[in-house]
TrEMBL record:
It comes from the Bacteria. Pfam families: PEP-CTERM. The chain crosses the membrane at residues 12-31. Keywords: Membrane, Transmembrane, Transmembrane helix. InterPro entries: Ice-binding_C, MYXO-CTERM, TM_Gly-Cys-Arg_CS. The lineage of its organism: Bacteria, Pseudomonadati, Pseudomonadota, Betaproteobacteria, Burkholderiales. This is PEP-CTERM sorting domain-containing protein. Residues 12-35 form the Ice-binding protein C-terminal domain. The keyword Membrane applies.
Length: 38
């Protein structure tokens, strides 16, 4: 039982949520670059 609960906690987050986080970080970086150019 310990192995099962441990594995479920270590599981990788859903690909969709991971993509959302990466997209958000990319957007923030793009906005920063645009603002610094002004």
């Amino acid at each position: 039982m310990d192995d099962l609960s441990f594995e479920s906690v270590v599981e990788v987050p859903e690909p969709g949520s991971l993509a959302l986080v990466l997209a958000g970080m990319g957007l923030a970086g793009a906005v920063r670059r645009r603002r610094s150019k002004h």
